[in-house]
Amino acid sequence: MRIVIAEDAVLLREGLVGLLERFGHTVVAGVGDAPALESAVAEHRPDAVVTDVRMPPGFSDEGLRAALRLRRLRPDLAVLVLSQYVEQTYATELLESGGGAGVGYLLKDRVGDVREFADALVRVAAGGTVVDPEVVRQLLRRRRDPLGRLTSRELEVLGLIAEGRSNASIAKELVVTDAAVAKHIANIFAKLDLPPAADGHRRVLAVLAYLRG
Question: Is there a contact between 85 and 64 (Cβ–Cβ < 8 Å)?
């Protein structure tokens, strides 16, 4: 896979380059600001972009807004946001761009290991959706804290749904039956006034759609 990395912290950027190349990918460009990100994508036509949110010149949401512009031009471009922050203004718009396929948002301090990150990027590049559960929680709390309706087990299931897990994977993680998982998911969507959906990234989109309600 051919990748462009946008990260203003040089040591982290170089670390990501080395990591992804160790997993067999080619980093065609590593840049430190949003304009350079857009130029690199135009020049190299990568398969995927990994970008931070806050970048020069303003260190607010430049990376995320650049990712949105890139997705409007190329809805098939896989974008994985890797950041310390949940930028609430544009995060939902990014996660819904391109029909929700090929996009992800992970928090740096919650990525458990390098293989987890590499696997998430591969899933996003294959058209999946990967969202850190904390991102979902922060976005949902903008609206009357609807998560307050959910039980602790339902919150666990919602977090795993946000990671793009299948029902079977959730059942294995929580050591319960597939039927129990299906019941929890039905309860979650009922409490959030959302219809159940068939696959991983659509289930994440259904949660995100609640934000616009």
Answer: no
